[in-house]
Write a structure and sequence with these properties.
This protein has about 230 residues and is α+β, with helices and mostly antiparallel strands. It has a single domain, classed as Cyclic phosphodiesterase (Cyclic Phosphodiesterase, Chain: A, Alpha-Beta Complex). Helix content is about 35%, strand content about 20%. The protein has a 4-stranded antiparallel β-sheet. A 3-stranded antiparallel β-sheet has the order 5-6-7, with helices on one face. The chain is globular and about 50 Å long.
């Protein structure tokens, strides 16, 4: 068998060197901008912190705009970047939102009060990239179908390779995997203290980033950033 094809994803990444980006790298123990592991901090949560980030850490600290996808031959990464540049020059950067911590589907995430402008940005990226996406493999499709999906979400998955798009999309920066309620409340309390001085500042959504996963077990790593119009 040949080498597995890489996957790509379109993310929003907090600005390099920002307090939010630094927190995310410390919490996950992985800096997807730098592309390497870093010192993980548990913020007093011990092994619970390690378990909480085990799933999301390899994706990096981010908000998804377009979920991971394989390229449809003969599409290249340059084709993706060309589409993203077209999106970027046609859209103004949204008003920077304030983020706060919320439970979302059993996990903790940072969410804006109003994500409609960010949903519009995600839809523009989705429409740009979907023609370049390879169809889901049977294994990928079966994995998605193991989650409880509504009939509408199944239609979206068939059309776009992912069920949480369009009006099902929710802009969020994942903090943990799924947790029991008591574990979630414990982590939320600990992280609230750490995040409170960071989240008082609006977060600029001024660029979209392309990330690459070279093999199925590899973490996602930053490839390119495309600046949105001012």
């Amino acid at each position: 068998m040949g080498t597995p094809a890489p996957r790509y994803a379109i993310y929003f990444l907090p600005g390099e060197g920002s307090a939010l980006a630094r927190f995310g790298a410390r919490w996950f123990g992985y800096d997807c901008l730098a592309g390497h592991a870093c010192r993980r901090e548990s913020f007093g949560l011990g092994d619970l912190a390690t378990r909480a980030v085990e799933g999301p850490a390899r994706y990096g600290f981010h908000a998804t705009l377009v979920a991971p996808f394989h390229l449809r031959p003969p599409v290249t990464i340059d084709d993706v970047l060309e589409r993203l540049h077209a999106v970027a020059v046609s859209r103004r950067a949204p008003e920077p939102p304030l983020l706060s911590m919320h439970e979302l589907g059993g996990f903790l995430a940072l969410r804006p009060g109003d994500d409609l402008p960010l949903r519009r940005l995600a839809v523009a990226c989705l429409f740009a990239c979907n023609p370049l996406r390879a169809e889901l493999s049977k294994a990928e499709r079966d994995r998605r179908l193991r989650s409880p999906l509504t009939p509408y979400q199944r239609i979206l998955m068939k059309a776009y390779g992912y069920p949480y798009v369009m009006d099902e999309y929710r802009f969020h920066i994942t903090l943990t995997g799924k947790l029991e309620e008591m574990e979630r409340k414990y982590i939320e309390s600990a992280l609230a203290e750490v995040l409170s001085p960071i989240l008082v500042q609006p977060v600029p959504i001024d660029a979209i980033s392309l990330l690459e996963q070279t093999t199925p077990d590899a973490p996602f790593r930053f490839h390119s950033r495309v600046q949105l119009s001012a």
